[in-house]
Amino acid sequence: MSDTKKGKKLFVKTYGCQMNEYDSDRLFEVMGEIGFSATDDMSKADVIVLNTCHIREKAAEKVYSELGRIKLVRNKRLQEGFDTTIVVAGCVAQAEGREILSRAPVVNIVIGPQSFHRLPDYIFSAEQHKQRIVDTDFPVELKFDHLPERTTKKLTTFLTVQEGCDKFCTFCVVPYTRGGEYSRPVDEIASEARALAKAGTRELTLLGQNVNAYHGADAQGQAASLAQLIEKLADIEGLQRIRYTTSHPNDMTDDLINAHADIPKLMPYLHLPFQSGSNKILKAMNRTHDIDKYIDVIGRMRTARPDIALSTDIIVGFPGETDQDFEETMQLVRTINYAQAYSFTYSARPGTTAANMDGQVPKELASARLQELQALLKEQQFAFNQGVIGQKLPILLEKYGRMDGQLVGRSPYLQLVHVMADKSLLGEIIEVEIVDATRNSLTGQMAGQMGKVDREALV
Ligand code: 5AD
Ligand code: SF4
Fold this sequence. Notes:
Layout: E1 9-14, H1 18-32, E2 37-38, E3 47-52, H2 59-79, E4 85-90, H3 91-96, H4 99-103, E5 109-111, H5 119-129, E6 133-135, E7 156-160, E8 162-163, H6 174-177, E9 182-183, H7 186-199, E10 203-207, H8 226-233, E11 241-245, H9 254-262, E12 269-271, H10 279-284, H11 291-304, E13 309-316, H12 323-336, E14 340-345, H13 363-386, E15 392-400, E16 406-410, E17 416-420, E18 429-437, E19 441-446, H14 455-458
Parallel strand pairs: 1-2, 1-3, 3-4, 4-5, 5-6, 7-10, 10-11, 12-13, 13-14, 17-19
Antiparallel strand pairs: 8-9, 15-16, 15-18, 16-17, 18-19
Helix pairs in contact: 8-9, 12-13
Bound molecules: 5'-deoxyadenosine and iron/sulfur cluster (SF4).
């Protein structure tokens, strides 16, 4: 089969979360095995994949309108004598299934997030037998067992360690699109991380919808915690920094909190969604934690790692949210003080419990609340960035900047940092003195003439 694919091109458009980005990376690797290489130009692609997201509103509509554009590309290629196979993958594929084939006749394959390792076979069937295929199973065999060794050459890379969710927050589609909670075994993750480090990864972000509920089997078959996993990964040579996302407050165990004090490679950054500052709304959301619990976790984290940068997700306009409930959300944000945050107006997702709740909040009111909240979050983000001016921070230089001679990197707190530095330093951690800060990024100067510095001392 591989001979027929030589020189073929794959175009992937990725929507949504970091896990989709990870899946897309793996998709390139799977397709690479049968001779496909990546293209950024859709009109050159023999296979076009939309890796979709269903978490918030209009996701499906966006996909259908993109498919309209793709149809034009496909028709033009057809006139030039080329076939194109069109694939809808990811969470919209999982949620809409066969419906996509009837609404968008241009689509050849619909494939859910748990099945994309089967794509090469499906492409073969679609091309050779002109079949249209839908696979939205949660297969018994795990996609991770069927994926090739990592070849992605990126300085900063995602690695899925846990997938799916059993928590069933009433607003959320994830338990339906990604399925139940599953943790990958420790050794499998460690060998993937080693391959990535060998290929050049310096910073690894461990991904999971509930990453801190991780309980994968270790070599003895015992469940390992996320903290234990991180400890093991921290031994990998070449890997300089470790992060993880997204966490649930109920799963913030002491060993994970302490890992932030004990493991130098674990970065001082925590993304911990609270969703609403009102206990009444949290209950209706089925979050199973209250505000006191959240504040307590943050307090313990700040004791372990006083400089920890905090991030969160917040939803406004959940059904039944009053002005008072919203004020409690604002109050919690003031109490915690975030380095950065994601905030959304609630959108009813088909099939979720909250979609049928009474007290749906009018769109205009939800938008006004969001604006007020985002103004506060922006202030906090700006203040956080201003707060590091004058500090010398270890910066992992990740890419070229827009200006000649400029490189762009990340601080331990995930801030974007612009610095004039020789391009030979790409991929290095250097010490940078921060001289300016906006809400979105920092400007720094290489501290002294030191250039490359002792990484172990800085991470
Ligand atoms: N409406 C608005 N925001 C949502 N999120 C998840 N589902 C919804 C929804 N139905 C947000 C939550 C979650 C983040 C990934 O997306 O804040 O943490
Ligand atoms: Fe969705 Fe809640 Fe699970 Fe997060 S914890 S993925 S918000 S159901």
